[in-house]
Amino acid sequence: MPTTKKESFYFGLIMCFGMVLVMTIYNLYLNGMFGEITFLEGISDFLIGFTIAFILDLFLVGPYAKKIALRLTANSSKKVYTVLAISTCMVIGMAFFMSIYGLVTTYIHNGFTNNSVITEYFALFGKNFVMALPLQIIIMGPVVRFIFMKFIKPKTIQNNLV
């Protein structure tokens, strides 16, 4: 796991890339936009979403999620509980904010509907949360930790020895 700011930066970069990629595809499919927008529009949506998610991860959601998770697991000696708590807190925070981005993107592509914005937001948040939590815990978390430990952590250790 990341122990320095540089490692945290790389870990967050990889995690955001994977989560935003899958969640962008999921939301395009959910809104019936998968075949409707061009490839460049899809890439553009992904890049904007990735940028927003990474900024949120670095400066807002990430720090608060870690503080809350560490406080919740302070009495536990099992690292898995801390990892699960951080992952869950991150998903709650990121789904909360990124659902706003998703709703705005939907309105840009499809226009407003007759439904309440708040109703649509909470429906979207629920759908995103239900997808993002298992994605994070079962797939992305383990994959990103593996990539991090295999490729990034050894380089950091090697650079510190030189």
How are the SSEs placed, and which strands pair?
Layout: H1 5-30, H2 39-59, H3 61-72, H4 79-110, H5 117-161
Helix pairs in contact: 1-2, 1-5, 2-4, 3-4, 4-5
Keywords: Membrane, Transmembrane, Transmembrane helix
Protein name: DUF2798 domain-containing protein
InterPro entries: DUF2798
General form: globular
Number of helices in the DSSP assignment = 5
Largest sheet: none
Q: Give the fraction of residues assigned to helices.
A: over 70%
Q: Strand fraction band?
A: under 5%
Mean pLDDT: 92
Helix and strand element order: HHHHH
Counting helices, strands and paired strands, the structural category is: mainly alpha
Radius of gyration: 17 Å
Low-pLDDT regions? none
**What's the structural domain tally?**
1
Q: What is the rounded distance between the termini?
A: 21 Å
User: How many runs of DSSP E, i.e. beta strands?
Assistant: 0
